[in-house]
Write a structure and sequence with these properties.
Blueprint: H1 2-27, H2 34-38, H3 41-63, H4 66-72, H5 75-86, H6 94-113
Length: 114
């Protein structure tokens, strides 16, 4: 159950980051004011995902030590990198992929301790 909650918190946080990106992309090239931006569905989706992610994260912290749980959130770095590359078609160089590999290795190493 703890692993499920941890992954859920990670996915919700990642989804919130992606929704933020979609929000700012929807504003690009438009002359819209703060009022229009505040009513962006992508912005509200981002807030909802990040808010629910926070609530799930609190459940995770009830079950795991923060020193173990928090580094697991670095999986967001991996997920957001994959989305950046394959959804937003952003360039990701070899150093970045190497960093992603190290993050995965670190998560596996810490996860085996938990």
């Amino acid at each position: 159950m703890t692993l499920f909650l941890l992954l859920t918190a990670c996915l919700l946080t990642c989804a919130g980051q992606i929704a933020q990106k979609y929000a700012v992309e929807s504003w690009r090239g438009k002359d819209c004011g703060w009022g229009e931006k505040l009513f962006s569905p992508w912005l509200w989706l981002a807030l909802a995902c990040l808010g629910f992610g926070l609530l799930v994260w609190l459940l995770v912290l009830q079950r795991l030590e923060v020193g173990i749980a928090y580094p697991m959130l670095s999986l967001n770095f991996v997920l957001v990198t994959l989305v950046a590359r394959f959804v937003f078609h952003e360039a990701v160089d070899r150093r970045h992929w190497f960093g992603v590999t190290l993050v995965i290795a670190g998560v596996v190493l810490l996860g085996s301790h938990a």
